[in-house]
């Protein structure tokens, strides 16, 4: 269970107080003046109304070296203009807007402006290929897409005509292809104030997609009430305080990049650093130093890449402004925690949550001792347990037992549905628990330790990848008869995708075909999702009912116990 604990750093007197319950957390927010609750109002408008409009909300760092700052008043005005653009094109409250863009200021204005107008926001990972984008927009019933001309040409234009719900495509910049609207001129013509739509706490605000082991991606529904947890967990788990310089490195297409890359820091009146560029070690160290970042939230993959570069890469940089380091996206190795303490002068604080929980549930907070390798303890207001399922019965397990991590329902950011899949949603709850699908252990001091996933999802660089989606893309190639995908350990990414395929008659398994299949997958899915390796097989292990046994492939690949083979059809090796 990892090395000895790292003692907490004494918090500043009066810096933080714990809530007695979610009612106390709600009381820290304002609510809409006429009643109701809206995320955009809590994130920007209330701060402007309270006299903090001149404080910096966002520092944007361009890929090519540009730098732009937006105050809270600036961001509120940009959000209002975007809301007017939606209304001018007939987009009504409750409709769904998808975002497909890198980290540019327009994305943040669009996110807040849409919620201000009562429009549901669904972010997409910019590295997705055309098929994942299309699938999610079809499931979500997209009315609006905000994207770039490049993304539109490569990923949208070819199938747009087949999606009649998509009535408006806004192109970031001053020009747009035929049939689309240039966002720059449209916002320049719009007023800079907009009356916030009177959303109720249970009105849908966000739609995040997460992959399943079978079937299509799941659309996870979150409501405006989630802002209660976004704000409070940022305060408690990330130690966010008004005026902090805060950097969340998560892509805005993932739930972390929305909950803690936009909403939580703004609700806590922090200043967000947004870097348009992808990971570059020297650039990151320079940003931490030059921008005087105080709170840094990043991923274990990035930490491992820093470790691979060695302590010497960090020498010469002054990290004295940093106060709190945190990490999320996959289990944080104990070595990463200790490395942070040794090289940067502070340990990384792990925390755990899911798209379905909407916010951090378990964390190593600033006022806790850290046990390197542990996820931490449940935050105030969160009741967690380790359980075992016995049919329809859920049995709580004692400390020291490995079982499924479960949470008592009722926290504000809990998902309200899987869009259009009520039965799938209902299966997540049993015996008064939300069942997470993750295996964990709780020790005698109440710390939780991640063990593994209870299903086949692949977690690569913090991204969840559903095998079915990758397999489907591979099978589209004329040479492929069947495909099975697993995750295999990788020192940097945690896991990478490996595919096993069987070929149709007339095709020869060779290096040229493997390269062709990998290129096909990258084109369809994007580099983040496509397999890193493809292995040809004469057949694949399957159950007697015809289901391919990914579990068995992974066990054989890694030399793990194969488990129960009673349902195996023959001996497909």
UniProtKB/TrEMBL annotation:
InterPro entries: AMP-bd_C, AMP-bd_C_sf, AMP-binding_CS, AMP-dep_synth/lig_dom, ANL_N_sf
Domain of life: Bacteria
A GO molecular function held by the record: acetate-CoA ligase activity
All copies of domain AMP-binding enzyme C-terminal, residue ranges: 469-547
Region Disordered, annotated ranges: 1-20
The entry's keywords: Acetylation, ATP-binding, Ligase, Nucleotide-binding
SUPFAM superfamilies: Acetyl-CoA synthetase-like
Stretches assigned to the AMP-dependent synthetase/ligase domain: 47-419
Documented EC number(s): 6.2.1.1
Name assigned to this protein: acetate--CoA ligase
Organism: Albidovulum sediminis
């Amino acid at each position: 269970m990892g090395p000895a604990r790292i003692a907490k750093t004494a918090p500043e007197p009066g810096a933080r107080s714990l809530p007695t319950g979610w009612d106390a957390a709600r009381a820290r927010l304002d609510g809409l003046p006429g009643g109701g609750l809206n995320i955009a109002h809590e994130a920007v408008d209330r701060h402007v109304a309270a006299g903090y409009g001149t404080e910096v909300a966002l520092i944007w760092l361009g890929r090519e070296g540009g730098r732009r700052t937006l105050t809270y008043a600036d961001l509120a005005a940009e959000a209002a203009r975007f809301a007017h653009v939606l209304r001018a094109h007939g987009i009504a409250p409750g409709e769904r807007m998808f975002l497909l863009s890198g980290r540019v200021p327009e994305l943040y204005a669009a996110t807040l402006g849409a919620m201000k107008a009562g429009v549901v926001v669904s972010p997409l990972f910019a590295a997705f290929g055309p098929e994942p984008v299309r699938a999610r927009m079809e499931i979500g019933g997209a009315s609006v897409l905000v994207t770039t001309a490049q993304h539109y040409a490569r990923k949208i234009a070819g199938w747009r005509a087949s999606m009649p719900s998509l009535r408006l495509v806004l192109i970031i910049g001053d020009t747009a292809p035929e049939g689309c609207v240039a966002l720059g001129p449209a916002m320049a013509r719009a007023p800079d104030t907009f009356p916030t739509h009177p959303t109720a706490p249970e009105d849908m605000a966000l739609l995040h997609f997460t992959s399943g082991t079978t079937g299509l991606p799941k659309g996870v529904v979150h409501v405006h009430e989630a802002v209660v947890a976004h704000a409070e967990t940022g305060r408690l788990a990330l130690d966010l305080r008004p005026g902090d310089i805060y950097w969340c490195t998560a892509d805005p297409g993932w739930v972390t990049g929305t909950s803690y890359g936009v909403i939580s820091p703004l609700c806590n009146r922090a200043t967000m650093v947004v870097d348009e560029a992808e990971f570059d070690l020297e650039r990151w160290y320079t940003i931490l130093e030059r921008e005087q970042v105080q709170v840094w939230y990043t991923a274990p993959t990035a930490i491992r890449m820093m470790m691979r570069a060695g302590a010497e890469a960090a020498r010469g940089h002054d990290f004295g402004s940093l106060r709190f380091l945190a990490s999320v996206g996959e289990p944080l190795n104990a070595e990463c925690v200790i490395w942070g303490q040794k090289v940067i002068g502070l340990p990384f604080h792990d925390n755990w949550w899911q798209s379905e929980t909407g916010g951090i549930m378990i964390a190593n907070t600033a006022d806790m001792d850290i046990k390197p390798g542990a996820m931490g303890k449940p935050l105030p207001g969160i009741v967690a347990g380790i359980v075992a399922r016995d049919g329809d019965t859920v049995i709580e397990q004692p400390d020291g037992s490995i079982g499924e991590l479960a949470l008592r329902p009722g926290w504000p950011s809990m998902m309200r549905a899987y869009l259009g899949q009520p039965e799938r949603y209902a299966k997540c709850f049993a015996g008064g628990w939300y069942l997470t699908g993750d295996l964990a252990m709780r020790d005698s001091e109440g710390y939780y330790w991640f063990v593994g996933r209870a299903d086949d999802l692949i977690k690569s660089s913090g991204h969840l990848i559903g095998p079915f989606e990758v397999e489907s893309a591979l099978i589209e190639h004329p040479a492929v008869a069947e495909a099975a995908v697993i995750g295999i350990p990788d020192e940097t990414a945690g896991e990478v995708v490996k595919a096993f395929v069987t070929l149709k008659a007339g095709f020869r398994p060779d290096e040229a075909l493997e390269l062709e299949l990998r290129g096909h997958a990258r084109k369809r899915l994007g580099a983040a999702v496509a397999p890193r390796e493809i292995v040809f097989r004469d057949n694949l292990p399957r159950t007697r009912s015809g289901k391919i046994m990914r579990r068995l492939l992974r066990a054989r690949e890694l030399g793990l116990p194969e488990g129960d083979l009673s349902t195996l059809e023959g001996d497909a090796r």
